[in-house]
Amino acid sequence: MDKMKLLKMSLEDLSAFAEPEVFLGNPSLPEGYSLRRYSPGLEKEWIRIQDEADDYIKVDKKLFKREFGTHLRELPRRMLFLAHGKNLIGTATAWLDDISDEPGTGRLHWVAIVPEYQGRGLGITLTHSALSLFPALGCSRAYLLTNAVRIPAINLYLKIGFKPLIGGAEEQSAWEEILDIIESLHL
User: Fold this and answer.
1) How far, in Å, CA of 186 to CA of 6, rounded?
2) Beta bridge partners of 35
3) Residues 36/91, Cβ–Cβ less than 8 Å
4) In degrees, to the nearest 5, what angle opens at C-alpha 80 toward C-alphas 74 and 82?
5) Which of 24, 27, 32 is nearest to 77 (CA)?
6) Which residues contact 81 (CB under 8 A, 6 or more apart)?
7) I want to staple 50 with a disulfide (CB 3.0 to 4.6 A). Which of 59, 95, 183, 187 is the partner?
8) Tell me: the pLDDT tens digits for 28-85?
Protein backbone atom coordinates (compact mmCIF):
# COMPACT_ATOMS: atom_id res chain seq x y z
CA MET A 1 0.00 0.00 0.00
CA ASP A 2 1.20 3.48 -0.84
CA LYS A 3 1.31 5.05 2.63
CA MET A 4 0.93 8.55 1.20
CA LYS A 5 -2.14 7.50 -0.78
CA LEU A 6 -4.76 10.21 -0.33
CA LEU A 7 -8.03 8.78 0.93
CA LYS A 8 -11.43 10.43 1.24
CA MET A 9 -13.93 9.82 4.03
CA SER A 10 -17.42 11.23 4.52
CA LEU A 11 -19.86 11.81 7.32
CA GLU A 12 -23.27 12.02 5.72
CA ASP A 13 -25.30 13.32 8.68
CA LEU A 14 -24.15 16.11 10.95
CA SER A 15 -27.44 16.36 12.85
CA ALA A 16 -25.79 15.02 16.01
CA PHE A 17 -23.57 18.11 15.89
CA ALA A 18 -26.38 20.60 15.16
CA GLU A 19 -26.42 22.26 18.57
CA PRO A 20 -24.23 25.36 18.15
CA GLU A 21 -21.01 25.26 20.12
CA VAL A 22 -22.09 21.96 21.65
CA PHE A 23 -18.54 20.87 22.35
CA LEU A 24 -16.93 24.20 23.16
CA GLY A 25 -16.38 24.08 26.89
CA ASN A 26 -17.05 20.33 26.79
CA PRO A 27 -16.78 18.88 30.30
CA SER A 28 -15.20 15.74 28.82
CA LEU A 29 -11.97 17.68 28.40
CA PRO A 30 -9.65 16.97 31.31
CA GLU A 31 -9.09 19.76 33.80
CA GLY A 32 -6.66 22.33 32.47
CA TYR A 33 -7.69 21.89 28.82
CA SER A 34 -9.86 24.25 26.81
CA LEU A 35 -10.92 25.08 23.28
CA ARG A 36 -10.31 28.45 21.65
CA ARG A 37 -11.20 30.00 18.35
CA TYR A 38 -8.69 31.40 15.90
CA SER A 39 -7.78 35.05 16.25
CA PRO A 40 -5.34 37.04 14.11
CA GLY A 41 -1.75 36.16 14.91
CA LEU A 42 -2.44 32.51 15.71
CA GLU A 43 -1.23 31.42 12.28
CA LYS A 44 2.23 30.98 13.82
CA GLU A 45 0.77 28.61 16.40
CA TRP A 46 -1.12 26.70 13.68
CA ILE A 47 2.12 26.29 11.72
CA ARG A 48 3.98 25.14 14.83
CA ILE A 49 1.32 22.59 15.80
CA GLN A 50 1.03 21.19 12.28
CA ASP A 51 4.81 21.07 11.85
CA GLU A 52 5.31 19.22 15.14
CA ALA A 53 2.48 16.79 14.41
CA ASP A 54 3.31 15.99 10.78
CA ASP A 55 6.38 14.07 9.63
CA TYR A 56 5.22 13.90 6.01
CA ILE A 57 4.35 17.42 4.87
CA LYS A 58 6.43 20.60 5.00
CA VAL A 59 4.35 23.04 7.03
CA ASP A 60 5.25 26.71 6.77
CA LYS A 61 3.81 30.19 6.12
CA LYS A 62 3.39 29.42 2.42
CA LEU A 63 1.24 26.38 3.20
CA PHE A 64 -0.91 28.36 5.63
CA LYS A 65 -1.39 31.09 3.04
CA ARG A 66 -2.20 28.57 0.30
CA GLU A 67 -4.76 26.78 2.47
CA PHE A 68 -6.44 29.75 4.17
CA GLY A 69 -5.06 33.01 2.75
CA THR A 70 -8.01 33.91 0.54
CA HIS A 71 -10.49 33.32 3.40
CA LEU A 72 -8.76 34.73 6.51
CA ARG A 73 -11.99 36.42 7.64
CA GLU A 74 -13.61 32.97 7.89
CA LEU A 75 -11.03 31.58 10.30
CA PRO A 76 -12.54 32.89 13.59
CA ARG A 77 -15.76 31.05 12.71
CA ARG A 78 -14.06 27.89 11.47
CA MET A 79 -10.71 27.21 13.15
CA LEU A 80 -10.34 25.86 16.67
CA PHE A 81 -7.35 25.37 18.91
CA LEU A 82 -7.01 22.95 21.80
CA ALA A 83 -5.09 24.43 24.72
CA HIS A 84 -3.44 22.90 27.77
CA GLY A 85 -3.17 25.81 30.14
CA LYS A 86 -1.79 28.63 28.01
CA ASN A 87 -0.11 26.30 25.50
CA LEU A 88 -1.87 25.60 22.22
CA ILE A 89 -1.45 21.90 21.49
CA GLY A 90 -3.97 21.06 18.76
CA THR A 91 -6.06 22.48 15.97
CA ALA A 92 -8.90 21.54 13.63
CA THR A 93 -10.87 23.47 11.05
CA ALA A 94 -14.45 23.29 9.77
CA TRP A 95 -13.41 24.44 6.33
CA LEU A 96 -15.06 25.48 3.12
CA ASP A 97 -15.96 22.79 0.63
CA ASP A 98 -13.50 22.87 -2.22
CA ILE A 99 -13.87 19.54 -3.99
CA SER A 100 -17.35 18.18 -3.32
CA ASP A 101 -20.10 18.62 -5.89
CA GLU A 102 -22.83 18.47 -3.27
CA PRO A 103 -24.08 21.71 -1.66
CA GLY A 104 -24.14 21.72 2.13
CA THR A 105 -20.88 19.81 2.42
CA GLY A 106 -18.03 21.04 4.60
CA ARG A 107 -14.49 19.81 4.90
CA LEU A 108 -12.92 18.74 8.18
CA HIS A 109 -9.44 20.07 7.57
CA TRP A 110 -5.99 19.98 9.15
CA VAL A 111 -6.74 18.15 12.39
CA ALA A 112 -3.57 17.86 14.46
CA ILE A 113 -2.34 17.43 18.02
CA VAL A 114 1.32 17.79 18.94
CA PRO A 115 2.94 14.39 19.57
CA GLU A 116 3.38 14.61 23.33
CA TYR A 117 -0.40 15.03 23.74
CA GLN A 118 -1.45 12.35 21.25
CA GLY A 119 -3.02 9.13 22.50
CA ARG A 120 -4.86 10.82 25.38
CA GLY A 121 -8.32 10.90 23.80
CA LEU A 122 -8.11 14.63 23.08
CA GLY A 123 -8.49 14.20 19.33
CA ILE A 124 -12.08 13.03 19.57
CA THR A 125 -13.18 16.13 21.50
CA LEU A 126 -11.25 18.42 19.16
CA THR A 127 -12.78 16.73 16.10
CA HIS A 128 -16.30 16.76 17.57
CA SER A 129 -15.87 20.44 18.36
CA ALA A 130 -14.88 21.26 14.79
CA LEU A 131 -17.79 19.19 13.45
CA SER A 132 -20.18 21.10 15.72
CA LEU A 133 -19.33 24.28 13.80
CA PHE A 134 -20.64 22.96 10.47
CA PRO A 135 -24.43 23.14 10.96
CA ALA A 136 -24.30 26.87 11.73
CA LEU A 137 -22.25 27.26 8.55
CA GLY A 138 -25.01 25.64 6.48
CA CYS A 139 -23.44 22.20 6.21
CA SER A 140 -25.38 19.00 6.75
CA ARG A 141 -22.52 16.63 5.80
CA ALA A 142 -18.75 16.64 5.91
CA TYR A 143 -15.79 15.00 4.28
CA LEU A 144 -12.06 14.84 4.91
CA LEU A 145 -8.92 13.80 3.11
CA THR A 146 -6.19 11.86 4.85
CA ASN A 147 -3.19 9.73 4.00
CA ALA A 148 -3.15 5.96 4.39
CA VAL A 149 -0.19 6.25 6.79
CA ARG A 150 -2.33 8.05 9.40
CA ILE A 151 -3.80 4.92 10.97
CA PRO A 152 -4.63 6.39 14.43
CA ALA A 153 -6.39 9.38 12.80
CA ILE A 154 -8.32 7.12 10.43
CA ASN A 155 -9.39 5.00 13.39
CA LEU A 156 -10.62 8.12 15.21
CA TYR A 157 -12.61 9.25 12.15
CA LEU A 158 -14.18 5.80 11.83
CA LYS A 159 -15.21 5.88 15.51
CA ILE A 160 -16.88 9.27 14.99
CA GLY A 161 -18.88 7.88 12.06
CA PHE A 162 -16.90 8.80 8.96
CA LYS A 163 -17.06 6.18 6.22
CA PRO A 164 -14.51 5.47 3.50
CA LEU A 165 -15.34 6.78 0.05
CA ILE A 166 -13.88 4.21 -2.28
CA GLY A 167 -13.17 5.25 -5.85
CA GLY A 168 -11.79 2.06 -7.35
CA ALA A 169 -9.96 -1.21 -6.85
CA GLU A 170 -6.73 0.44 -5.65
CA GLU A 171 -8.59 2.37 -2.93
CA GLN A 172 -10.59 -0.73 -2.00
CA SER A 173 -7.35 -2.62 -1.49
CA ALA A 174 -5.86 0.22 0.57
CA TRP A 175 -8.94 0.36 2.80
CA GLU A 176 -8.92 -3.41 3.33
CA GLU A 177 -5.29 -3.20 4.44
CA ILE A 178 -5.98 -0.22 6.73
CA LEU A 179 -8.95 -1.94 8.37
CA ASP A 180 -6.88 -5.10 8.88
CA ILE A 181 -4.14 -3.02 10.55
CA ILE A 182 -6.66 -1.29 12.82
CA GLU A 183 -8.18 -4.64 13.79
CA SER A 184 -4.78 -6.23 14.44
CA LEU A 185 -3.72 -3.30 16.63
CA HIS A 186 -7.02 -3.41 18.55
CA LEU A 187 -7.39 0.35 18.16
Assistant:
1) 23
2) 82
3) no
4) 165
5) 24
6) 35, 36, 37, 38, 42, 45, 46, 49, 88, 90, 91
7) 59
8) 788 899 999 999 999 999 999 999 999 888 999 999 999 999 999 999 999 999 999 9
